[in-house]
Amino acid sequence: MRSSGGLTMRRSTTASSGASGQRDRWRIGVRFLLLLAVDILNLWVKMILRSILRGTWRLFAVCDAHGESQLHAFLKSVESGDALAKDKTRLLAYLDRVAHTPLPLRDNEITHIIDREWRIWQTTRGGVRVLWFYDEGRLMILSHGFEKRTTKTPPAEIERAQRSAKTYFEAKKQRKLRFLEGA
Questions:
Q1: How many domains is the chain partitioned into structurally?
Q2: Are residues 38 and 66 in the same domain?
Q3: Are 119 and 134 in contact (CB under 8 A)?
Q4: Residues 140-159: pLDDT tens digits?
Q5: How far apart are CA 70 and CA 110, in angstroms?
Q6: Distance between CA atoms of residues 5 and 12, nearest Å
Q7: CATH code of 103's domain
Q8: What is the DSSP string of 60-103?
Q9: Same domain membership, residue 81 and residue 147
Q10: Are residues 50 and 37 in the same domain?
Q11: Is residue 160 helix, strand or coil?
Q12: Residues 6+ apart with CB under 8 A from 147
């Protein structure tokens, strides 16, 4: 123990503490470089999509800059006492059925077009809605999901899906799409 100006400092008795500290600094440096590389990659990328389901159709969900899908988080968030749990489960089962059919399901009771300009569709199951659009190559791009509170789809939700479609087609044209696998 050494005293310097009222402060008491202890010297480490283990020789390995210097090596482990160096290893920790190295890990932090590597982690920083990986995050920096991801940030640089994301500057190049205009839109990130995550694979939700694969079959005859490939269903992708729109993600944020970190690769997190609002739709996936919304549909998978089934908590005890969640009044929408059954509807979310039924909607996931419906989307799975859609992914594995040769032709797109057009069940007018639960699926219909809500924006003809951007060709945005809506699927409703009980109290849950999902907005999506098609692309060539049997792709369905799922914009987002939300709780149904009124009989009409709120304009803000439609605008959000329109922005997703616009961004998607611009990014596709510029080859700035990034596809992630798995949930």
A1: 2
A2: no
A3: yes
A4: 999 999 999 999 999 999 99
A5: 21
A6: 20
A7: 3.30.2310.20
A8: EEEE-TTS-BHHHHHHH---TT-TTHHHHHHHHHHHHHHHTSSS
A9: yes
A10: no
A11: helix
A12: 84, 127, 128, 129
- Whether residues 103 and 145 share a domain: the answer is yes
In a shared domain, residues 80 and 148: yes
Long-range contacts formed by 148-151: CB under 8 A, 24+ apart: 148/124
Encode pLDDT of 100-126 as tens digits. 988 876 777 889 999 999 999 999 999
Tokens for 106, please give them.
Answer: 């057009």
Q: Are residues 133 and 109 in the same domain?
A: yes
Rounded CA-CA distance 18/88 in Å is 52
Give 14-51 pLDDT, tens digit per residue.
444 567 778 888 888 777 777 666 555 556 778 999 99
Is the Cβ–Cβ distance between 178 and 45 less than 8 Å? yes
Binned at pLDDT 50, 70 and 90, residue 4 comes out as very low
Same domain for 24 and 67 = no
The pLDDT of residue 17: 59
Residue with tokens 């999506």: 132
Distance CA 60, CA 41 (A): 20
- pLDDT value of residue 6: 47
Q: What's the whole-model pTM score?
A: 0.74
Q: What tokens does 74 get?
A: 């919304």
> Same structural domain for residues 22 and 109?
no
Please give the residue range of the domain that contains residue 133.
Answer: 46-180
